Target: CBPC6 carboxypeptidase
Amino acid sequence: PPSPAANLRPGAEQRVVFITARVHPGETPSSFVCQGIIDFLVSQHPIAKVLRDHLVFKIAPMLNPDGVYLGNYRCSLMGFDLNRHWANPSPWAHPTLHGVKQLIIQMYNDPKINLEFYIDIHAHSTMMNGFMYGNIFEDEERFQRQAVFPKLLCQNAEDFSYSSTSFNRDAVKAGTGRRFLGGLLNDTSYCYTLEVSFYSYIVGGTTSAVPYTEEAYMKLGRNVARTFLDYYRLNTLVEGPLAPIPKTR
Model:
Protein backbone atom coordinates (compact mmCIF):
# COMPACT_ATOMS: atom_id res chain seq x y z
CA PRO A 1 0.00 0.00 0.00
CA PRO A 2 1.19 3.58 -0.57
CA SER A 3 2.92 5.21 2.36
CA PRO A 4 0.69 7.64 4.28
CA ALA A 5 3.25 10.29 3.42
CA ALA A 6 3.40 9.44 -0.31
CA ASN A 7 2.74 13.07 -1.23
CA LEU A 8 5.63 14.45 0.88
CA ARG A 9 8.90 15.48 -0.69
CA PRO A 10 11.20 12.41 -0.99
CA GLY A 11 13.19 11.82 2.18
CA ALA A 12 11.26 14.46 4.13
CA GLU A 13 10.80 13.84 7.83
CA GLN A 14 7.14 13.27 8.57
CA ARG A 15 5.83 16.23 10.55
CA VAL A 16 2.47 15.20 11.97
CA VAL A 17 -0.46 17.38 13.06
CA PHE A 18 -2.95 15.28 15.05
CA ILE A 19 -6.48 16.65 15.47
CA THR A 20 -9.35 15.15 17.48
CA ALA A 21 -12.91 16.38 18.06
CA ARG A 22 -16.25 15.60 19.69
CA VAL A 23 -14.99 13.78 22.77
CA HIS A 24 -18.00 15.42 24.49
CA PRO A 25 -21.04 14.46 22.40
CA GLY A 26 -23.11 17.56 23.17
CA GLU A 27 -20.42 19.91 21.85
CA THR A 28 -21.73 19.88 18.28
CA PRO A 29 -19.85 23.05 17.16
CA SER A 30 -16.61 21.07 17.44
CA SER A 31 -17.77 18.84 14.57
CA PHE A 32 -18.37 21.84 12.31
CA VAL A 33 -14.94 23.32 13.13
CA CYS A 34 -13.34 19.94 12.39
CA GLN A 35 -15.34 19.69 9.15
CA GLY A 36 -13.96 23.09 8.12
CA ILE A 37 -10.39 21.87 8.73
CA ILE A 38 -10.96 18.68 6.72
CA ASP A 39 -12.75 20.41 3.83
CA PHE A 40 -9.95 22.96 3.54
CA LEU A 41 -7.13 20.41 3.71
CA VAL A 42 -8.57 18.27 0.89
CA SER A 43 -9.44 21.30 -1.28
CA GLN A 44 -7.56 22.70 -4.26
CA HIS A 45 -6.75 25.91 -2.36
CA PRO A 46 -3.05 26.79 -2.90
CA ILE A 47 -2.38 26.87 0.86
CA ALA A 48 -3.93 23.41 1.26
CA LYS A 49 -1.66 22.06 -1.47
CA VAL A 50 1.43 23.45 0.29
CA LEU A 51 0.31 21.96 3.62
CA ARG A 52 -0.22 18.55 2.03
CA ASP A 53 3.27 18.75 0.49
CA HIS A 54 4.94 19.34 3.84
CA LEU A 55 2.79 17.92 6.64
CA VAL A 56 0.87 14.77 7.56
CA PHE A 57 -2.55 15.40 9.12
CA LYS A 58 -4.15 12.70 11.28
CA ILE A 59 -7.74 13.54 12.18
CA ALA A 60 -10.17 11.63 14.44
CA PRO A 61 -13.35 13.71 13.96
CA MET A 62 -15.51 11.92 16.56
CA LEU A 63 -13.96 10.41 19.69
CA ASN A 64 -17.32 9.63 21.31
CA PRO A 65 -19.55 8.13 18.57
CA ASP A 66 -21.75 6.13 20.95
CA GLY A 67 -22.43 9.20 23.10
CA VAL A 68 -23.30 11.20 19.97
CA TYR A 69 -25.62 8.44 18.72
CA LEU A 70 -27.44 8.33 22.07
CA GLY A 71 -27.74 12.12 22.31
CA ASN A 72 -25.70 12.26 25.51
CA TYR A 73 -24.28 15.60 26.55
CA ARG A 74 -20.93 14.63 28.05
CA CYS A 75 -20.62 10.88 28.53
CA SER A 76 -20.17 7.72 26.50
CA LEU A 77 -22.62 4.79 26.42
CA MET A 78 -21.05 3.46 29.62
CA GLY A 79 -21.32 6.80 31.41
CA PHE A 80 -17.67 7.88 31.18
CA ASP A 81 -16.46 11.42 30.56
CA LEU A 82 -13.82 10.16 28.14
CA ASN A 83 -11.82 13.39 28.45
CA ARG A 84 -10.78 12.39 31.97
CA HIS A 85 -9.39 8.95 31.00
CA TRP A 86 -6.42 9.68 28.73
CA ALA A 87 -3.90 8.66 31.38
CA ASN A 88 -4.98 5.01 31.37
CA PRO A 89 -7.73 4.28 28.82
CA SER A 90 -9.19 0.80 28.83
CA PRO A 91 -9.53 -0.91 25.42
CA TRP A 92 -12.90 -2.20 26.63
CA ALA A 93 -14.38 0.88 28.35
CA HIS A 94 -12.70 3.69 26.38
CA PRO A 95 -11.86 2.08 22.99
CA THR A 96 -11.57 5.28 20.95
CA LEU A 97 -9.13 6.87 23.40
CA HIS A 98 -7.18 3.65 23.69
CA GLY A 99 -6.81 3.42 19.89
CA VAL A 100 -5.84 7.06 19.41
CA LYS A 101 -3.38 6.96 22.32
CA GLN A 102 -1.71 3.78 20.97
CA LEU A 103 -1.32 5.45 17.56
CA ILE A 104 0.15 8.61 19.11
CA ILE A 105 2.63 6.61 21.22
CA GLN A 106 3.60 4.52 18.19
CA MET A 107 4.29 7.70 16.20
CA TYR A 108 6.15 9.26 19.12
CA ASN A 109 8.47 6.23 19.24
CA ASP A 110 9.16 6.32 15.49
CA PRO A 111 12.38 8.27 14.79
CA LYS A 112 11.17 9.19 11.28
CA ILE A 113 8.06 10.93 12.62
CA ASN A 114 7.89 14.21 14.50
CA LEU A 115 4.49 14.73 16.14
CA GLU A 116 4.42 18.51 16.24
CA PHE A 117 0.83 19.47 17.10
CA TYR A 118 -2.04 17.89 18.97
CA ILE A 119 -5.30 19.88 18.92
CA ASP A 120 -8.49 18.63 20.59
CA ILE A 121 -11.61 20.55 19.53
CA HIS A 122 -14.40 21.34 22.03
CA ALA A 123 -17.28 23.78 22.41
CA HIS A 124 -17.86 26.05 25.43
CA SER A 125 -21.23 26.79 26.99
CA THR A 126 -20.42 30.07 28.78
CA MET A 127 -17.50 31.79 27.01
CA MET A 128 -17.69 33.80 23.79
CA ASN A 129 -15.45 33.43 20.71
CA GLY A 130 -12.93 30.77 19.86
CA PHE A 131 -9.95 30.41 22.20
CA MET A 132 -7.38 27.86 23.31
CA TYR A 133 -6.10 26.16 26.45
CA GLY A 134 -2.41 25.32 26.53
CA ASN A 135 -0.02 23.84 29.08
CA ILE A 136 2.31 25.46 31.60
CA PHE A 137 6.01 24.55 31.49
CA GLU A 138 8.93 25.44 33.71
CA ASP A 139 10.99 26.21 30.61
CA GLU A 140 10.27 29.84 29.74
CA GLU A 141 11.33 29.51 26.11
CA ARG A 142 9.05 26.50 25.55
CA PHE A 143 6.19 28.39 27.18
CA GLN A 144 6.76 31.37 24.85
CA ARG A 145 6.97 29.16 21.75
CA GLN A 146 3.66 27.59 22.68
CA ALA A 147 1.95 30.99 22.44
CA VAL A 148 2.95 31.44 18.77
CA PHE A 149 0.22 29.34 17.15
CA PRO A 150 -2.74 30.95 18.99
CA LYS A 151 -1.29 34.42 18.30
CA LEU A 152 -1.09 33.65 14.58
CA LEU A 153 -4.61 32.19 14.60
CA CYS A 154 -5.85 35.37 16.23
CA GLN A 155 -4.51 37.33 13.23
CA ASN A 156 -6.32 35.03 10.76
CA ALA A 157 -9.69 34.59 12.48
CA GLU A 158 -11.76 37.56 13.60
CA ASP A 159 -13.71 35.34 15.98
CA PHE A 160 -10.64 33.89 17.74
CA SER A 161 -9.66 35.58 21.00
CA TYR A 162 -6.08 35.48 22.23
CA SER A 163 -7.09 37.34 25.40
CA SER A 164 -9.39 34.42 26.35
CA THR A 165 -6.64 31.89 25.59
CA SER A 166 -5.08 30.55 28.79
CA PHE A 167 -2.34 28.19 29.92
CA ASN A 168 -2.98 26.07 32.99
CA ARG A 169 -2.25 22.88 34.85
CA ASP A 170 -5.10 22.66 37.36
CA ALA A 171 -5.89 19.22 38.76
CA VAL A 172 -9.43 19.04 37.34
CA LYS A 173 -8.02 18.99 33.79
CA ALA A 174 -5.41 16.30 34.48
CA GLY A 175 -7.04 13.49 32.45
CA THR A 176 -7.63 15.57 29.32
CA GLY A 177 -5.92 14.90 26.00
CA ARG A 178 -4.06 18.21 26.02
CA ARG A 179 -2.71 17.76 29.54
CA PHE A 180 -1.81 14.11 29.21
CA LEU A 181 -0.12 14.42 25.82
CA GLY A 182 1.58 17.64 26.89
CA GLY A 183 3.30 15.59 29.58
CA LEU A 184 4.05 12.62 27.33
CA LEU A 185 5.41 14.34 24.21
CA ASN A 186 8.70 16.21 24.09
CA ASP A 187 9.34 19.93 23.85
CA THR A 188 9.01 20.04 20.06
CA SER A 189 5.30 19.14 20.39
CA TYR A 190 2.48 21.59 21.10
CA CYS A 191 -0.78 20.37 22.66
CA TYR A 192 -3.90 22.52 22.76
CA THR A 193 -7.60 22.38 23.45
CA LEU A 194 -9.42 24.55 20.89
CA GLU A 195 -12.69 25.84 22.34
CA VAL A 196 -15.44 27.63 20.44
CA SER A 197 -18.55 29.26 21.90
CA PHE A 198 -21.92 27.55 21.56
CA TYR A 199 -23.40 30.98 21.08
CA SER A 200 -21.52 33.87 19.54
CA TYR A 201 -18.37 35.89 19.10
CA ILE A 202 -17.46 39.53 19.59
CA VAL A 203 -15.25 41.10 16.93
CA GLY A 204 -12.36 43.15 18.32
CA GLY A 205 -13.16 46.82 18.86
CA THR A 206 -16.92 46.25 19.01
CA THR A 207 -19.32 45.19 21.73
CA SER A 208 -22.05 43.48 19.72
CA ALA A 209 -22.21 39.69 19.72
CA VAL A 210 -22.39 37.94 16.35
CA PRO A 211 -24.27 34.61 16.59
CA TYR A 212 -22.34 31.63 15.30
CA THR A 213 -23.65 29.72 12.29
CA GLU A 214 -22.54 26.34 10.98
CA GLU A 215 -20.68 28.19 8.23
CA ALA A 216 -18.91 30.43 10.75
CA TYR A 217 -17.74 27.39 12.72
CA MET A 218 -16.41 25.83 9.50
CA LYS A 219 -14.67 29.10 8.65
CA LEU A 220 -12.86 28.96 12.00
CA GLY A 221 -11.73 25.46 11.00
CA ARG A 222 -10.45 26.75 7.65
CA ASN A 223 -8.57 29.50 9.45
CA VAL A 224 -7.02 26.98 11.87
CA ALA A 225 -5.73 25.00 8.86
CA ARG A 226 -4.42 28.15 7.16
CA THR A 227 -2.53 29.15 10.30
CA PHE A 228 -0.26 26.11 9.95
CA LEU A 229 1.24 27.73 6.84
CA ASP A 230 1.96 30.94 8.78
CA TYR A 231 3.49 28.92 11.61
CA TYR A 232 5.77 26.86 9.37
CA ARG A 233 6.70 29.85 7.21
CA LEU A 234 7.85 31.52 10.42
CA ASN A 235 9.90 28.40 11.18
CA THR A 236 11.25 28.20 7.59
CA LEU A 237 9.90 24.74 6.79
CA VAL A 238 7.94 26.24 3.90
CA GLU A 239 10.36 28.29 1.85
CA GLY A 240 10.06 30.94 -0.78
CA PRO A 241 7.32 33.12 -2.16
CA LEU A 242 4.09 31.44 -3.13
CA ALA A 243 1.61 33.00 -5.42
CA PRO A 244 -0.28 35.76 -3.57
CA ILE A 245 -2.39 33.94 -1.01
CA PRO A 246 -6.13 34.47 -1.35
CA LYS A 247 -7.84 34.85 2.00
CA THR A 248 -10.39 32.20 2.94
CA ARG A 249 -12.57 34.62 4.85
